[in-house]
Amino acid sequence: MRRLQQMLFTLAISMMLGSCVTSKDSISDKSFEIQRGMTKEEAGRILGKPDFRRFDGDLEQWEYQNGGGIYRQYLIVEFKDDVVKSMDSYNEISRGSSVGNLNSHKVSLSVVGSVEDNEFDEVYNEVKNSVFKESTLERSIRNKKFSCAQCLQLMSLYTFDDDKLKMLKVLKGHIADTINYDDIVNSLDFISSKDKAREILGISK
Questions:
Q1: Residue 171 and residue 154 in contact, taking contact as beta carbons nearer than 8 Å
Q2: What is the pLDDT of residues 94-134, one digit of tens each?
Q3: How far apart are CA 27 and CA 47, in angstroms?
Q4: What's the CA gap between 10 and 3, in Å, rounded?
Q5: Nearest CA among 118, 27, 116 for reference residue 76
Q6: pTM for this one?
Q7: Angle (nearest 5°) at CA 34 between 150 and 82
Q8: Which site in 91, 98, 138, 167 is 20 to 30 Å from 21, CA atoms measured?
Q9: Handedness of CA 93, 99, 100, 102 (dihedral sign)
Q10: In the β-sheet with 71-80, what is the strand arrangement from edge to edge?
């Protein structure tokens, strides 16, 4: 009898763990099936009903969340004219977790002439939580200078090069360490995107 109870207990634990793994990986797995240009109907069949929905004019965002405990997964799909325009997926440490103070190990992105880390974090979080990231950024960076590392952090809010270049157009007059322009250029995936970044920044090959 005791052996049977142990077997049933082990089976139950295995099923729970298997369920957790499936749940944890589901957002990441499904994100690879989403392609730019898909219709909302096609994306909905893959992802299901979003946890949160935001829209303004012809732009709409679907947000999915998954996971528990320390880490939480996020997937954000943006639609324009009812087709997928961009997508972003990332992990974040849940608020109130016992991991410790992340800022104690944070590397400063600031350089001489750029905003301090705390001020940058305010701008970054405001832009990240906005539907219209470029317009929010443009409003938030008046009279501010950023390091190339800080610019890369802001550009990383987007997945695709085209969107990152739009962000760069807003940032181009606000970069403190122009000597590090190559860091921005080399962060882009495609040769054509690198050329466009050089054009935006006013540098030659």
A1: yes
A2: 544 333 333 433 567 878 899 999 999 999 999 999 989 99
A3: 8
A4: 11
A5: 27
A6: 0.51
A7: 90
A8: 98
A9: negative
A10: 52-56, 59-66, 71-80, 83-93
